[in-house]
Amino acid sequence: MAFGAFATATTAAEPVARRKSPIALLLLLPGLLYLGLFFLVPLFSLVITSLQQPDPVLFGQFENAFRWENYVTVLEQYWPQTIRAFGFAALATLFALLIGFPLAYFVGITLRRWPLLQALALVLVIAPFFISFLLRTIAWKQLFSDEGPIVGFLQALAILPGDAAITGSAFAVVFGLTYNFIPFMTLPIYTSLERLDLRYVEAGGDLYASPRSTFFRVTLPLAAPGIMSGTLLTFIPAAGDYVNASREFLGSTDTAMIGNVIEANFLVLQNFPAAAALSLVLMAAILILVSAYVKRSGTEDLL
Amino acid sequence: MSISAVPQSGFAEAGADLELVGITKRFPGFTAIEDLDLRIPAGSFFALLGPSGCGKTTTLRLIAGLEEPTAGRILIGGKDVTATKAFQRPVNTVFQSYALFPHMTIIENVAFGLKRRKMANADALAHEALRLVELDHVSSRKPSQLSGGQQQRVALARAIVNRPALLLLDEPLGALDLKLRRQMQIELKGIQDTVGLTFLHVTHDQEEAMTMADTVAVMNKGVIEQMGAPQELYELPRTAFVATFLGQSNIMSGQVVSATGSSMVVDVAGNRVEVPRDRASRHSGEVAIGVRPEKVTLHATEPARDSGRNMVGPGRITDVSFSGVSTQYEVSSPVFGLFTVFAQNTSISRMHRDGDQVWMTWDVGHTFGLADEPSELPAHRFDDDTDTSMIATQRREQLEAELEGA
Asked: For B91, which residue in chain A has the nearest alpha carbon?
């Protein structure tokens, strides 16, 4: 989506008033049409659905109304899943950052002197995308299964008790989210680090900053745009994710996230107003969190 | 505006001697610096001058601690710092690209070094340094909001605020336009006079080196060819490289036909050219001698023999280029080759024209004798203009080609 824009927003924006050309508008038209058709119209429909009430006559049908109580009901009913979704997403973002940053640093800076190896490493970072993430997540389910090698190994070392299971636990879900989003975290950070001018790092050393101090005061702030894009690209989809936490994959009913609840309401319970209200709650919560984050980091690190 | 308000930093050896002992730096497949010995006395303004790829920037990076020498020792103020890392050395660098931290304001940039060394009044000192370069009013801006010249001055302030024992300048004026460069040269020299630090300036601009430095070392292919005061180097170059890199020279070669206690006579294609003995490095056999173009006078008719002046000719003018202050003539002759002559446009004297036959004379005392074998004289004025990494790549490719051939 448009998050790449955060990374480029650092270069001094020139507020030059350009002459408006009809060609620019013409080129924008397909995009605007697309957004209108596939974003605004569904959004509008979602808002209307979220306010519907059950049809008094036909069971399972809904009629248009202004039942804002739907929002209160879903929040009362599903607040644990909502909080869990953001908690899991935050944890997954943190772990993906802890794994993705060193990886991006290695590919973007350490491997700079060997362009061929760098290209190869970059392909390896993207390689998981060659296989559907559903398959890969299922594979993890197999690996984590009760008779699987990982549980067996940990039980043999007496780290896990004999009756323990990994699948269906919060650990498995956060693991799955982290695993699936590492490339989304790594690539934007890599882009930032790959063009990091190492002369800044040398200048840090020249000005009495130890390697550690140089990292925290020079390298990290200069990679901030990438970290920003990476965390957004991870956190936003992870918060709404319903695959990793579902029972068919790594989760259980105890680990259900807001995405799972929305899915269940839409497809299983067919409670469309509840599902729509939850979707809008998710969207609003993400918007608030992200804009607070962008505003905070945007003013401090990005300029 | 006075720097005396900037108190001494934590480094006791501010303005220290620098000594390089037997420094060698090898990169895979090529040697950048070969057994370099150099001593720069405290408080001097020393310029390391040479073409791209001569090893001057590598020398600077070795002193700054950004590269490790393959062999040899580096001493600052008598203390061996060879094994220490860049951040532990009392040295600051003004980088060619300035390398101002783009995410920090100007004042944060300037105070960076002081804060890393936990100086209590870092901000006050940083403002003081900014006032010295007359940029205190932009202290809260980001580097990208400043012009190139301003950034250069901030980079300078960021380095001198630390009062390093040694300030390294890596072609800091290279990115500025000519007018700004002249202005900065004067400012830089003024600042050095005021703060009394030891400056080591690396440049490929001979004019810059000569106008600013007390001592110039001309470097070529990893060794220092000649070192001395700018005027001394210019008036008496010892090698053909120095003679042609530092200004221009007319270089001739010939057999020494007679030598007395104070001078020797060289036969240059039938012309007897006299060289004072103490201005020549070689005194017998085939020698190379030279004279600067502005020392040479043109004559439209063959002048009378004068014992104090050397004469060669006749030759024919092949090119005349008028540059206002002076006129540059190219004179060629099948016997002595090509000669360049600068004539000051001081009188309304008749200009020589393309195709004119001329004789050239100059004061015997302006002739210099070179240490090079005449057969090894460089064919071109400049060495191949490549930087160190390109040379390394070339050498590696050559090596690989040889290996494949074997």
From this structure: A206
B residues 61..80 contacting A (CB < 8 A): 64-66
pLDDT per residue as tens digits for the range B333-346: 887 788 899 988 87
Of A199, A218, A224, nearest to B95 by CB-CB distance is A199
DSSP B90-150: SEEEE-TT----TTS-HHHHHHHHHHHTT-TTHHHHHHHHHHHTT-GGGTTS-GGGS-HHH
Q: Which residues of A touch B88 (CB under 8 A)?
A: 208
From chain B residues 110-129, the ones with a CB under 8 A of any chain A CB are: 112-113, 116-117
**In angstroms, what is the C-alpha Rg of chain B?**
25
Q: What is the pTM of this model?
A: 0.77
Nearest to B116 among A202, A208, A221 (CB): A208
* pLDDT tens, residue by residue, B308-367: 888 887 889 999 988 888 889 999 888 778 889 998 887 766 678 888 889 999 999 999
Task: Give B 136-195 residues with CB within 8 A of chain A.
Answer: 142, 144-145, 158, 162
Q: How far is CA B334 from CA A284, B250, B297, B314, B315, in A?
A: 89, 15, 20, 10, 8
Q: Tokens 């071109």 label which residue?
A: B380
Q: What is the nearest CA distance from A100 to chain B, expressed in angstroms?
A: 23
- Residues facing residue B251 across a β-bridge: B290
**What homologous superfamily does CATH list for B249-376?**
Nucleic acid-binding proteins (2.40.50.140)
pLDDT tens readout for residues B155-169: 989 998 988 888 999
**B136, exposed or middle or buried, with CB in 10 Å at 0-12, 13-18, 19+?**
middle
Indicate yes or no: CB of B93 within 8 angstroms of CB of A206.
yes
Looking at domain B3-232, its CATH architecture is 3-Layer(aba) Sandwich (3.40)
| Residue B278 pLDDT > 70 | yes
Chain A / chain B CB contacts < 8 angstroms: 66
| Domain architecture of chain A: domains with CATH | 72-300 (1.10.3720.10)
Cβ of A207 and B144 within 8 Å?
A: no
Tell me if residue B72 falls in helix, strand or coil: strand
User: CB of B277 within 8 Å of any CB in chain A?
Assistant: no
Report residue B48 as tokens: 């390391």
d(CA B49, CA B122): 35
- Report how far apart, in Å, the C-alpha atoms of A255 and of each of A96, A150, B258, B331 are: 19, 21, 103, 92
Domain ranges of chain B: 3-232, 249-376
| Nearest residue on chain B to A197, alpha-carbon basis | B99
